[in-house]
Design goal:
Strand content: 25-35%
Radius of gyration: 33 Å
Structural class: alpha+beta
Strand order of the largest sheet: 4-5-6-9-12-13-14-15
Distance between the termini: 102 Å
Largest sheet: 8 strands, parallel, barrel
Length: 1187
């Protein structure tokens, strides 16, 4: 046969075989449980659609289209339950209206059949908090959650049952349905889902849960290869419905792959299973040591390079078309991102910290993600993470260390970062104009787009709203995103004329947008006054409110001179601030700081369009306002009132929207559902303080401020309008605007403020830690178990830590072996010790960190860990357990210690110890028994992401053998000890040492904590007084107290007065390992240079505050090896406030990045970053109505 036909035949055969294999795998993935149909688990829109519905644009709650702006919240990463509420309040004040919660199966189930839902696992309380605060919930109970947690959230007891296929994984990239695994998943769902079900919005009691996620990143296909099992999804979805879940179900692809989408006619497509809403995750920019290629080829771990904008463009700019291309239900449901990147996590072995990762992404990254996905029509999103929290105990997997800061919007110790503040401005715009943004379509014809830029790559998209503006068609949204190659920060926007003008007419506006920043430019928008029509704003508008409003009640009550539409907009960082309007406008009032009559706000005609005028605020203004009317303004016609604020003021901007369609009040009662009250107009707006939170039930405003913040502004609208119109405010007439002092309060409060400041100042270099006590672990009293080998002659052990359930922290090993005094060589004998001694080695293979002691002498330490795939100790994926062997030389000193019973070796030129010499001489004539102690610290079980089967990768001691010519064959016996996590109340809360709660053996010492290798494992403890926090009694501020132009609101007279929040840090330096325990809670794991973390958050809810009558106990377990010891054996341990750059927010940065060296003598005196302790004062004001 000729070569050509033969080649074609072979190719056809291979192709046919490939197709047949693919069809087999596809049929196999489709499953056999086809009696469970998609229609059995679909959301019942006929029954509940009046409460919750959806279409291709958005969710519809109680008949109103609603944006879902969510942030991830892991309650199990906040061990102090008292911090849940203030943290969720920070989410709310940041502009979010929803959270997503991963519910952690293993956190609630420490042992088979045992489920715990109280204490810091009380999810009923958590959901009640969400209803009280006004946050919707996207509930994600797994069963698998990933989340960089041990075993991906599966219970340890389940992972230890090796016959069970977790996630149905038979091996890497291959699943086989396991009914026994599903039985356990159903059991878990039957325990947790009824709790979630009680809080569903569909219950008619205004619950918070609006959707339930099934599984997590459970791809149906990956690039066409069938992975996900339909039977898995069928059983989970059916169980959810059987447990009373009535809200829509959703799933999330790890990236857009179109998994488990409901087909157009699910009744006919019974073999294909789908869930109500399709979601997909978007992680766009990875740090160099996390992006996928680094799993194969390592990256420099010492620094970060600038990220490339083309990554964002390629990943996001065609997202909408890709998702819609999956067809079927994806054409009829909102674009939904359950995990939108809000930062990134860090790894062991990296040299840089979360501070460097924060700088890598920058303050504008999350805002950039937000604006870009909205340019793709997304109306449901969840930032992962919004607050990362802490991998306290051992809850993190082997990929992450204690801090899970994530460089997120809220830093680990609670600081609301500059990234949050930049993001919040975007969220406030979305909330203010939500009626416009819930229904938009891409302007696909680029010729139809009305805005162009003078610089390439500064406009990424333009969309038009379904909301029509008066006479001029749909409102237009232009998405400004500066990815210019030259990194310019100023360019010119050209607005083409609207339908009422000549299409050749062009208006040009100056636009300021720093490199890698973004905003949504509003255009073709008509205000309350139909004669005031915005053509285009070249500066961000953040808030829109209606003073007087359409309801009319307050208009009559307060005798407003007229209704007005109020905007809060940004002043350009450089150059003029410009907006274009159609028609003739009149400035009724204007003003601002750093402006003169000659150099003030102007209206000039457009040079390219006679029907358009340009409003321009000059460069250099600190703040400004303008009240605009039309040329034909009647006395009762509405006006447009614009307040312009600079970046520092905008960083403190807070806004309360009453967008809770139904909410549980603090008194436990439910408010009535009133969709008409859900307009996008805000109720309360403030700026000038670190943070604020309005309580609509109590009508109180809680304010947090720093020492440098002197005053704040409160602007109220609608039903929340609690002060009379202020005709003399700094921001123009006709507003219910109040300026109040934050420091000029009653003397008793000022004294309290001073006491807080004094405490922080005294302790900014560290609290005095003295009166230490110490003890040493006695390995002899532990409950040792035999540690059998796989075979008599094998070096491998039959079991690893998972088999013993020793998965929290350390696992301990002990061995005995014997040596003879001589060994034979060439017919003679050679001494086993002394100058002619032959070496003895301990050869072992372990995961992850091991320190070895022989006869009480430390012989070294080693870490087997890799960030790359298929390397020994691989953090993820296949771990070649036959590799990773390390050999320790058992030193003469260690061998002789068996004979001398631990007597100290004589130093050079010192007098010999006769007793020691006698014991050594005797040992050379007889066999000696030696003891090995191995302390192995596991970094945690892997988490089994996507299609990887790695949860059961071994930890602890894999193999060991003592080698040497004088070692007696068959004398080596191994034992194991640890803490069985099934016996703990919380499976991740132990150091792994059975004596961790030992109360005996503690001795007072004048020494400071130190690490002497041959002392073994030592424990140190001390006590310290916490920072002040409790308030002082305070009378209400008198109505005659001075504020600018109007009496201030009154602080609440509830006996609390001022309170302070002073987060504390435990800072450790030195080459050793340590476990940090605060008030009996394991809060940190320290690994010296093997981990970038040296600063550990001491959770505020665990700290006993000054005046509480309780001291705090700090306990540190430490050990180190000879190889890492230095002349300085001290363990440098400090407790101090967090020292950060721009601690007072005077620069508007609020990064939260640490600067602990700022107060050291050698530190430079530069004030560029305003380093200092971060702390805030909290006070509440009752906003009483004026009659």
């Amino acid at each position: 046969m000729p070569a050509g036909p033969l080649t074609a035949t072979v190719a056809a055969a291979i192709l046919g075989l490939g197709v047949a294999v693919h069809q087999y795998i596809e049929r196999r993935a489709t499953g056999t449980l086809t009696d469970i149909h998609t229609t059995d688990t679909l959301y019942d829109r006929a029954r509940f659609g009046h409460i919750l519905d959806y279409d291709a644009h958005s969710l519809i709650l109680h008949g109103q289209r609603t944006l879902i702006l969510s942030g991830e919240f892991h309650y199990w990463r906040l061990p102090d339950k008292t911090r849940w509420k203030p943290m969720l309040q920070q989410y709310r004040s940041a502009g979010l209206n929803c959270i997503r919660i991963y519910f952690h199966w293993g956190f609630h189930s420490p042992a088979p059949g045992k489920y715990v839902f109280d204490g810091n696992r009380d999810i009923e309380y958590l959901l009640l908090l969400c209803e009280e605060i006004g946050l919707y919930v996207l509930a994600a109970p797994g069963p698998y959650i990933c989340a960089e947690t041990q075993a991906g959230g599966f219970p340890i007891w389940l992972a230890a049952q090796r016959e069970i296929r977790l996630r149905h994984m038979k091996t890497n990239f291959w699943k086989e349905y396991d009914p026994k695994f599903m039985e356990y998943c159903v059991e878990y769902f039957e325990h947790i889902l009824p709790i979630l079900g009680r809080h569903q919005i569909t219950n008619g009691k205004e619950g918070c849960v609006i959707a339930l996620q099934i599984e997590n990143e459970n791809f149906q296909h990956v690039f066409g290869y069938p992975i996900g099992l339909h039977d898995d999804m069928r059983v989970l979805a059916k169980t959810a419905r059987d447990c009373g879940i009535t809200v829509p179900l959703f799933t999330n692809d790890g990236f857009e792959q179109g998994s488990f989408v409901v087909k157009d006619d699910p009744r006919k497509n019974k073999k294909d299973f789908g869930v109500d809403l399709y979601g997909f995750d978007k992680y766009v920019v990875f740090t160099p040591n996390s992006e996928p290629s680094s799993w194969v080829v390592g990256r420099d771990s010492s620094h970060l390079k600038e990220w490339d904008p083309t990554t964002v463009r390629s990943e996001l700019d065609s997202m909408e078309r890709k998702v819609r291309s999956f067809g079927h239900a994806n054409l009829k449901t909102p674009i939904f991102i359950p995990e939108l990147q809000g930062g990134w996590f860090n790894h062991y072995g990296i040299k840089y910290t979360y501070d460097e990762i924060y700088k890598f992404y920058g303050e504008k990254y999350s805002r950039l993600m937000l604006d870009t996905v909205f340019s793709q029509g997304c109306t449901m999103l969840n930032f992962y993470m919004f607050y990362g929290g802490t991998n306290w105990g051992t809850i993190g997997d082997s990929d992450v260390y204690t801090s899970y800061d994530y460089s997120a919007s809220i830093r680990e110790f609670g600081l609301m970062s500059g990234r949050l503040r930049t993001l919040r401005l975007g969220l406030l715009f979305l909330q203010s104009f939500s009626d416009i943004l819930v229904q938009t379509d891409e302007i696909t014809n680029k010729r139809s787009r009305t805005v162009k830029s003078s610089v390439y790559n500064t406009v990424c998209q333009q969309r038009e709203s379904k909301v029509l503006t008066y006479r001029s068609g749909p409102v237009e949204l232009t998405f400004i995103r500066n990815f210019s190659h030259k990194k310019v920060d100023q360019f010119e926007l050209s607005s083409l004329a609207d339908e009422l003008s000549d299409r050749r007419s062009v208006t040009k506006l100056k636009c300021f947008a720093p490199y890698k920043s973004s905003f949504i430019a509003l255009g073709n928008y008509t205000t309350l006054n139909r004669d005031i029509h915005l053509v285009l704003s070249a500066t961000p508008i953040h808030i829109r409110g209606f003073s007087g409003g359409d309801l009319g009640k307050l208009y009559q009550k307060h005798h407003y001179p007229h209704k007005s539409e109020v905007w809060i907009a940004a002043l350009a960082g450089r150059g003029p601030t410009e907006m274009a309007f159609r028609g003739a406008l009149v400035i009724q009032s204007a003003g601002g700081r750093n402006m003169t009559a000659e150099n003030g706000i102007k209206i000039r005609p457009s040079s390219g369009d006679r029907n358009v005028c340009v409003l321009s605020v000059p460069e250099g203004a600190k703040d400004a306002f303008v009240v605009l009317g039309s040329a034909n303004q009647a006395p009762t016609d509405p006006v447009l009132h614009i307040i312009f604020l600079g970046q520092q003021e905008l960083s403190t901007l807070y806004c309360y929207y009453d967008n809770r369609h139904g909410r549980r009040r603090a008194d436990g009662k439910h408010s009535a559902v009133d969709a008409s009250a859900m307009a996008s107009s805000p109720k309360i707006v403030t700026w000038g303080s670190y943070n604020a939170l309005y309580d609509p039930d109590q009508k109180t405003l809680t304010v947090e401020s720093t020492e440098s913040q002197k005053e704040m502004h409160i602007l109220s609208f609608g039903d929340a309008n609690t002060v009379p119109v202020n005709e003399l405010s700094d921001f123009g007439p006709g507003l219910a605007l109040q300026t109040i002092p934050l420091t000029e309060t009653e003397t008793v409060l000022e004294e309290a403020r001073g006491s807080y400041a004094g405490w922080v100042s005294r302790n900014q270099s560290g609290l005095e830690l003295s009166r230490w006590q110490t003890r040493t672990t006695d390995f002899g009293i532990m409950d040792w178990k035999e540690c059998p080998r796989k075979a008599p002659k094998s070096d491998l052990f039959e079991n690893v830590n998972l088999d013993y359930h020793f998965t929290s922290g350390h696992i301990l090993y002990r061995a005995q072996f014997k040596t003879t005094p001589y060994h034979r060589r060439f017919g003679g004998t050679v001494a086993a010790t002394g100058k002619d001694a032959q070496p003895i080695w301990l050869k072992l293979n372990s995961r992850h960190r091991v320190i070895a002691y022989v006869n009480g002498v430390c012989i070294g330490s080693h870490m087997t860990y890799s960030r790359q795939l298929m390397r020994p100790g691989a953090k993820m994926g296949y771990d070649p357990i036959s590799r990773g062997t390390h050999k320790f030389l058992i030193t003469t000193k260690a061998l002789e210690a068996a004979a001398t019973k631990g007597m100290i070796h004589e130093r050079q030129n010192s007098e010999p110890n006769p007793e020691r010499q006698r014991l050594l001489a005797a040992s050379r004539a007889e066999e000696q028994t030696h003891e090995i102690i191995l302390v192995i610290d596991s970094l945690g079980l892997s988490r089994q992401p996507f299609v990887v089967d790695d949860i059961r990768n071994p930890r602890g001691l894999l193999s060991a053998r003592v080698q040497g010519k004088t070692v007696v064959k068959g004398s080596e016996k191994w034992q194991v000890a640890g803490v069985d996590v099934r016996e703990l109340d919380m499976a991740y809360g132990s150091t792994g040492f059975p004596d961790e709660h030992e109360s005996k053996g503690w001795k007072a010492t004048a020494e400071l904590p130190s690490v002497v290798p041959d002392r073994g494992v030592t424990w140190w403890r001390t006590q310290f007084e916490g920072p002040p926090s409790a308030g002082v009694p305070s009378p209400p501020v008198s109505a005659s107290s001075s504020s600018r132009h109007n009496p201030p609101p009154q602080p609440e007279d509830d006996g609390t007065g001022l309170t302070a929040d002073v987060p504390l840090c435990c800072r450790i330096r030195g080459e050793f390992s340590a476990m940090i325990i605060l008030n009996n809670v394991l809060v940190g794991r320290y690994f010296g240079s093997d981990s970038p973390q040296h600063d550990f958050y001491l959770m505020s809810g665990l700290i006993h505050k000054s005046g509480s009558g309780k001291l705090n106990e700090l306990k540190v377990m430490m050990y180190g090896s000879e190889a890492s010891s230095t002349k300085d054996t001290s363990a440098h341990i400090q407790i101090l406030p967090w020292i950060v750059e721009d601690a007072q927010g005077e620069l508007g940065l609020w990064s939260g990045n640490t600067m602990f060296d700022a107060f050291e003598k050698s530190a430079p005196k530069s004030k560029a970053l305003q380093a200092g302790p971060f702390w805030t004062i909290r006070q509440s004001f009752a906003l009483g109505s004026e009659n």
